[in-house]
Design a protein that fits this description.
- This protein is mostly beta strands.
- The chain has a single domain, classed as Immunoglobulin-like (Sandwich).
- Helix content is 0%, strand content 53%.
- The chain is built from no helices and 7 strands.
- The protein has a 4-stranded antiparallel beta sheet, with no helix packed on it. A 3-stranded antiparallel beta sheet has the order 1-2-5, with no helix packed on it.
- A hairpin with a 6-residue loop joins strand 1 and strand 2.
- It is globular and about 35 Å long.
Length: 101
């Protein structure tokens, strides 16, 4: 078995491991999307919707005051295709892919 190093510039999540507990559903979706965050991190989450080319099409902030957060994003106004949803909290960034049908 071989091992290899991944250069730092290719690592998406450089923040605390606790922020990895993030679920987005349904995926694929026709528009409405729910997200669940269940971790110990507290603070303002910046949620950014991006095209696959990296163009920002929507940005919003949500306050997370408890370990568990359930929220909704409505993507029905956008064209069908693949999008990225970026969640930023403190020094942690998680990017998820979403398919809009």
């Amino acid at each position: 078995m071989s091992t290899f190093d991944i250069p730092a510039e290719y690592i998406i999540n450089e923040g605390p491991v606790e922020f990895e507990n993030l679920n987005i559903y349904p995926n694929p979706t026709t528009g409405p999307v729910q997200y669940e965050v269940d971790n110990k991190l507290i603070g303002d989450i910046t949620i950014t919707i991006l095209t696959l080319e990296g163009k920002e099409i929507r940005k919003q902030k949500v306050r997370k005051d408890f370990e568990y957060l359930l929220g909704k994003i409505d993507l029905t106004e956008y064209s069908r295709g693949n999008y990225l949803i970026k969640f930023e909290l403190n020094n942690s960034v998680v990017i998820k892919n979403i398919i809009l049908e």
